[in-house]
Amino acid sequence: MGDMLEVDYERAIAAKYPEPVALAVSMDRVANRPNIITLGWAMCTSHSPPMLAISVGHTRHSLKNISDAGEFVLAFPSAAQAEAALFCGASSGRDVDKFAESGLEPLPALKVEPPLVADACANFECTVVDACESGDHRIFIGRVVASHMCVPMRPRLYTLPQGDLGPVSWRGAGAVGR
Q1: How far is CA 61 from CA 29, 42, 67, 79, 96, in A?
Q2: Which domains does the chain have, with CATH numbers?
Q3: Is pLDDT above 90 for 61?
Q4: What is the value of pTM for the model shown?
Protein backbone atom coordinates (compact mmCIF):
# COMPACT_ATOMS: atom_id res chain seq x y z
CA MET A 1 0.00 0.00 0.00
CA GLY A 2 1.35 3.45 -0.94
CA ASP A 3 2.03 6.31 1.43
CA MET A 4 0.13 9.59 1.12
CA LEU A 5 2.18 12.76 0.92
CA GLU A 6 0.62 16.16 1.56
CA VAL A 7 1.30 18.42 -1.44
CA ASP A 8 -0.08 21.68 -2.75
CA TYR A 9 -3.38 21.70 -4.63
CA GLU A 10 -1.84 22.32 -8.09
CA ARG A 11 0.39 19.27 -7.81
CA ALA A 12 -2.35 16.95 -6.57
CA ILE A 13 -5.05 18.09 -9.04
CA ALA A 14 -2.73 17.23 -11.94
CA ALA A 15 -3.47 13.57 -11.13
CA LYS A 16 -6.97 13.98 -12.64
CA TYR A 17 -5.60 14.02 -16.21
CA PRO A 18 -6.39 12.91 -18.85
CA GLU A 19 -9.60 14.93 -18.71
CA PRO A 20 -12.33 14.93 -21.37
CA VAL A 21 -12.69 18.16 -23.36
CA ALA A 22 -16.22 19.48 -23.84
CA LEU A 23 -17.74 22.24 -25.93
CA ALA A 24 -20.84 24.13 -24.81
CA VAL A 25 -22.80 25.94 -27.50
CA SER A 26 -25.08 28.82 -26.52
CA MET A 27 -26.92 31.55 -28.38
CA ASP A 28 -25.65 35.11 -28.23
CA ARG A 29 -28.90 36.99 -28.73
CA VAL A 30 -27.14 40.38 -29.00
CA ALA A 31 -24.87 39.29 -31.87
CA ASN A 32 -27.60 36.90 -33.13
CA ARG A 33 -25.18 33.99 -33.51
CA PRO A 34 -24.19 30.83 -31.67
CA ASN A 35 -21.12 30.85 -29.44
CA ILE A 36 -18.87 27.96 -28.40
CA ILE A 37 -16.90 27.70 -25.17
CA THR A 38 -14.32 24.99 -24.52
CA LEU A 39 -14.71 23.39 -21.10
CA GLY A 40 -12.88 20.86 -18.99
CA TRP A 41 -15.63 20.59 -16.40
CA ALA A 42 -18.68 18.68 -17.56
CA MET A 43 -20.33 15.68 -15.95
CA CYS A 44 -23.36 13.42 -15.78
CA THR A 45 -25.56 14.19 -12.78
CA SER A 46 -28.59 11.93 -13.34
CA HIS A 47 -29.67 9.03 -15.55
CA SER A 48 -33.39 9.36 -14.82
CA PRO A 49 -34.12 11.92 -16.03
CA PRO A 50 -30.88 12.36 -17.96
CA MET A 51 -29.04 15.48 -16.77
CA LEU A 52 -25.59 16.93 -17.43
CA ALA A 53 -23.75 19.74 -15.68
CA ILE A 54 -21.20 22.22 -16.96
CA SER A 55 -19.10 24.75 -15.05
CA VAL A 56 -18.59 28.16 -16.68
CA GLY A 57 -16.31 30.93 -15.38
CA HIS A 58 -17.97 34.15 -14.24
CA THR A 59 -15.93 36.22 -16.72
CA ARG A 60 -16.93 34.13 -19.75
CA HIS A 61 -19.25 35.43 -22.46
CA SER A 62 -21.14 32.12 -22.48
CA LEU A 63 -22.23 32.61 -18.87
CA LYS A 64 -24.65 35.39 -19.84
CA ASN A 65 -25.80 33.55 -22.96
CA ILE A 66 -26.71 30.39 -21.05
CA SER A 67 -28.21 32.32 -18.13
CA ASP A 68 -30.41 34.39 -20.46
CA ALA A 69 -31.54 31.60 -22.82
CA GLY A 70 -31.77 28.74 -20.31
CA GLU A 71 -30.40 26.20 -22.76
CA PHE A 72 -27.16 24.91 -24.26
CA VAL A 73 -25.75 22.09 -26.35
CA LEU A 74 -22.98 20.03 -24.76
CA ALA A 75 -20.71 18.45 -27.36
CA PHE A 76 -17.80 16.07 -26.85
CA PRO A 77 -15.36 16.88 -29.67
CA SER A 78 -13.38 14.31 -31.57
CA ALA A 79 -9.58 14.25 -31.44
CA ALA A 80 -9.59 15.63 -34.99
CA GLN A 81 -11.24 18.79 -33.64
CA ALA A 82 -8.35 19.65 -31.28
CA GLU A 83 -7.25 22.84 -33.06
CA ALA A 84 -10.83 24.13 -33.23
CA ALA A 85 -11.34 23.37 -29.52
CA LEU A 86 -8.15 25.29 -28.70
CA PHE A 87 -9.36 28.23 -30.77
CA CYS A 88 -12.78 28.25 -29.07
CA GLY A 89 -11.10 28.19 -25.66
CA ALA A 90 -8.66 30.99 -26.46
CA SER A 91 -11.03 33.41 -28.23
CA SER A 92 -14.01 35.34 -26.91
CA GLY A 93 -17.39 35.11 -28.58
CA ARG A 94 -17.76 38.81 -27.78
CA ASP A 95 -15.21 39.45 -30.55
CA VAL A 96 -15.45 36.59 -33.07
CA ASP A 97 -17.91 34.17 -34.65
CA LYS A 98 -16.34 30.96 -33.39
CA PHE A 99 -18.16 28.66 -35.82
CA ALA A 100 -16.99 30.75 -38.78
CA GLU A 101 -13.42 31.19 -37.51
CA SER A 102 -12.78 27.71 -36.07
CA GLY A 103 -13.95 25.66 -39.02
CA LEU A 104 -16.46 23.79 -36.86
CA GLU A 105 -19.75 23.19 -38.65
CA PRO A 106 -23.09 23.93 -36.96
CA LEU A 107 -25.98 21.51 -37.47
CA PRO A 108 -29.58 22.32 -36.53
CA ALA A 109 -30.68 21.04 -33.13
CA LEU A 110 -34.09 19.42 -32.73
CA LYS A 111 -35.34 20.97 -29.48
CA VAL A 112 -33.11 23.91 -28.50
CA GLU A 113 -31.91 27.00 -30.37
CA PRO A 114 -28.11 26.52 -30.16
CA PRO A 115 -26.80 24.26 -32.93
CA LEU A 116 -25.03 20.93 -32.66
CA VAL A 117 -21.34 20.57 -33.53
CA ALA A 118 -20.91 18.41 -36.66
CA ASP A 119 -18.46 15.51 -36.35
CA ALA A 120 -18.31 15.73 -32.54
CA CYS A 121 -18.46 12.31 -30.89
CA ALA A 122 -21.77 13.21 -29.21
CA ASN A 123 -24.07 16.23 -28.78
CA PHE A 124 -26.65 16.71 -26.03
CA GLU A 125 -29.39 19.31 -26.24
CA CYS A 126 -30.02 20.62 -22.72
CA THR A 127 -32.49 22.91 -21.01
CA VAL A 128 -31.25 24.49 -17.78
CA VAL A 129 -33.12 23.22 -14.73
CA ASP A 130 -30.86 24.72 -12.07
CA ALA A 131 -27.68 26.69 -11.52
CA CYS A 132 -25.48 27.31 -8.51
CA GLU A 133 -22.48 29.46 -7.75
CA SER A 134 -19.19 27.65 -7.15
CA GLY A 135 -16.43 30.13 -6.35
CA ASP A 136 -15.33 31.76 -9.60
CA HIS A 137 -17.67 29.57 -11.72
CA ARG A 138 -21.38 28.89 -12.13
CA ILE A 139 -22.56 25.33 -12.50
CA PHE A 140 -25.46 24.85 -14.91
CA ILE A 141 -27.50 21.65 -14.64
CA GLY A 142 -29.20 20.80 -17.90
CA ARG A 143 -31.90 18.26 -18.58
CA VAL A 144 -31.06 16.36 -21.76
CA VAL A 145 -33.96 16.78 -24.20
CA ALA A 146 -32.25 15.19 -27.24
CA SER A 147 -29.04 13.20 -27.78
CA HIS A 148 -27.00 12.70 -30.94
CA MET A 149 -24.01 10.48 -31.75
CA CYS A 150 -21.56 10.57 -34.66
CA VAL A 151 -21.47 7.36 -36.67
CA PRO A 152 -18.94 5.93 -37.10
CA MET A 153 -17.64 6.82 -33.66
CA ARG A 154 -14.45 8.88 -33.57
CA PRO A 155 -11.70 9.03 -30.91
CA ARG A 156 -12.62 11.59 -28.25
CA LEU A 157 -10.53 14.63 -27.35
CA TYR A 158 -8.82 14.85 -23.94
CA THR A 159 -6.57 17.27 -22.13
CA LEU A 160 -3.45 15.26 -21.37
CA PRO A 161 -1.20 15.63 -18.30
CA GLN A 162 1.20 18.20 -19.79
CA GLY A 163 -1.67 20.33 -21.16
CA ASP A 164 -1.54 18.89 -24.69
CA LEU A 165 -4.73 17.76 -26.39
CA GLY A 166 -5.20 14.34 -27.95
CA PRO A 167 -6.98 10.99 -27.82
CA VAL A 168 -6.55 8.40 -25.10
CA SER A 169 -6.26 4.71 -25.97
CA TRP A 170 -9.36 2.63 -25.29
CA ARG A 171 -7.32 0.23 -23.18
CA GLY A 172 -6.47 2.97 -20.72
CA ALA A 173 -2.77 2.69 -21.51
CA GLY A 174 -2.41 6.43 -21.97
CA ALA A 175 -2.06 8.89 -24.78
CA VAL A 176 -1.65 7.79 -28.37
CA GLY A 177 -0.65 9.81 -31.38
CA ARG A 178 0.42 13.42 -31.46
Answers
A1: 12, 17, 10, 25, 11
A2: 17-161 (2.30.110.10)
A3: yes
A4: 0.90
